[in-house]
Amino acid sequence: MANLDPxxxxxxxxxxxxxxxxxxxxxxxxxxQEISIGIAFTGDYANIxxxxxxxxPTPSHTAFGDADVPTLRALAAxxxxxxxxxxxxxxxxxxxxxxxxxxNQVWSRSGNTFSGTTGKGVVVGIIDTGIDFTHxxxxxxxxxxxxxxxxxxxxxxxPGLKAPxxxxxAPDPISWPPLGSAYTINYGVEYNDEDIEATLANPDSNPPTxxxxxxxxxxxxxxxxxxxxxxxxxxxxxxxxxxxxxxEATFVIVRKWGLTKGDTAVANPAGTDGNELLDAxxxxxxxxxxxxxxxMPVAVNLSLGRMNSSLxxxxxxxxxxxxxxxxxxxxxxxxxxxxxxxxxxxxxxAQDSIPAGGTLDIPWNIPxxxxxxxxxxxxxxxxxxxxxxxxxxxxxxETVTEANSSSTANGPGSAVSVASSPADGISNGSxxxxxxxxxxxxxxxxxxxxxxxxxxxxxxxxxxxxxKDGFCFHDNRPAQPGPPVLPLPVKTxxxxxxxxxACGKLSISTGAYGITDPANRTLTAFSSRGPTRxxxxxxxxxxxxxxxxxxxxxxxxxxxxxxxCACCQDWYVAHNGTSQASPHVAGTMALMLQVKPQYTQAQxxxxxxxxxxxxxxxxxxxxxxxxGWGVGAVDAKKAVQKVSLFSALVVEPATVQAPETEPSxxxxxxxxxxGKSLAGLFQRYFPEVMNLINxxxxxxxxxxxxxxxxxxxxxxxxxxxxxxxxxPEIDGLSLTDAATxxxxxxxxxxxxxxxxxxxxxxxxxxxxxxxxxxxEMIDMVGHYKQExxxxxxxxxx
Length: 797
Hints:
- Belongs to the peptidase S8 family.
- Residues 391-430 are annotated as: Disordered.
- By secondary structure, the protein is an alpha+beta fold.
- It folds into 4 domains: 3-87, 2-Layer Sandwich (Alpha-Beta Plaits); 92-343 and 500-645, Rossmann fold; 349-492, Jelly Rolls, CATH 2.60.120.380; 659-782, no CATH class.
- The chain contains 19 helices and 32 strands.
- Strand 3 (54-57) and strand 4 (62-67) form a beta hairpin.
- Helix 14 (675-695) crosses helix 15 (697-705) and helix 15 (697-705) packs antiparallel against helix 17.
- The longest helix has 21 residues, at 675-695.
- The protein starts with a strand and ends in a 15-residue tail after the last helix.
- The model is unreliable at 465-472, 474-489, 561-569, 646-663 and 787-797 (pLDDT under 50).
């Protein structure tokens, strides 16, 4: 059975109980209700679609779309489906900050003209709530009727929200070859610079040529930090005081559906398959690479996220697909930064130890008139003997256990369920309101019992990502007044509170610090901390930090005062968040890409996170703040100097473009005594091995478990960098161990011919050394003394 998101596993369990016990009534989720999901699969997608899944596959063997309950069951049972996760939309999450990261030391200004490393010739992509394109910081400071925005795609301009006019078109086609010819976008409206400038020239036209608006202001503020030019004065400041990091970059903007209040009045736009974020990224990359006279390098900022413990890992389908795009050989001149999240001080993660034979009671108060569905997840060591139950405040104090669900514990027609999978180290529960539409107010209690012989540490999460806004352990939000729900000794922690989008191993995740002065940077309490929930956990997240407290940047039109003249306007507002920190990093990457326009995400990451490129965290930190700082504070000047000094950085784990080395390495292999036989073996059996990976679920599982795709990317990188030394390990796994484990599964499913032909090579596994280069490996294998008579000898073409 596929690895199911806990909330989906609980849903299927509840449905089964209701079906087997008609006396419980009708389950509140009907069979025909569409659920937005993401899946990872192997083999032919046609077999997945045949189950009734209405989605869109990606080249990464992931797919996103909608499934009703019967289809969800069929997917969960299908041998090609590896995992199913709930596909969740994100939430939206300069005058001192730009000097603090020393961005203003790589460019200079004379009047309204900039020079130096300014981001000129680089695209800054902002995927957010949109942009106030009328704001002066996004216009040419010399000619304010010219815009610095090349394209805007508004995903929210759809029937039911803001229907397109007959003259307005969706942005199809997508023509950047790495995305594939089948990649289409057929919703929303696209505007270009001509549309924007026509509206600037005739602001009173009805309707305007460009009808796009930023109704929230978040995207406008973020864009101003990354690349605003600071041209207009504030009400109390001179012009060019609040200048962004890359003031001459060109913008490509996406207003993403689901970020602004009111967007979700209409379900996912038709044609998205719940894939709006990936569509937005594909659009920005495509327009940067094909929408200008020449391809442009692009730095993309995503100040959005969601905290969900079940998706807080690098292999969730969304992150997997994004990182596969970034790892494409053609993905040069691309950088991506995500906000780490603002859940560090929101008490959404509790952690406590339950002694052997003990029970931890977790009470919380639900106020009157509460209409929200409450979901929670508990994590612990796999194999622990944990049982959970819930006691409701109903007059009978009804207790719901794993053996039964209840349709009355939260009032008539409700659904209260708990479930555990101790072998996987996870328990979860759900409390749905009944026919009254409201939950029973009063004290509810989660009972967590450890029936094992040793203490067990339990991590509890209130899930912000189920689409329903779960409970918080200390519910201090204005909408939910009341006392803390977890009295001592249960403790909350800021650790492992990362946005599910900020958990990638290749993209940059950015935390936030506040500035008193350059010598006194303080990590903000709200900034989310790692580690992720990867098994084993990613060593440190976020990757680095940037200013994110009291950041002045462009305000959108609703934040301007109603003044009669521009000189009295206050064009800037201050906001806090990792949303404000991330565009400092995206802007810095734009500066780096101006110097090195062919750099990959991996090269940018290596340069940015080099200890010589950052300002070290302050001393005397708590363990939680050590995790929250990453490698330190971003420094744009040092990062630009880093890429200026070296024409090619050795990076990991993606490819580096140096194709001229390819023929010489191939020739070196073929010149060795065993070269032609080895090459023939590869040609003969590569299709068989790939077929097993794509169509045999057990082989695919081991392939991913031993980090096969990552080792493959490292091999490609080494192919283009013959002097590069092997990495000692990936997440604690050495190359020798990975190869041995994969060989073990091949012995069960590969052909006897393959097994017989590779048998003479098996002793080579013990000969690999972690300090070897690819050239040294070729020499060792090519001159291996084992008699190669059993190897295939067909010619190499």
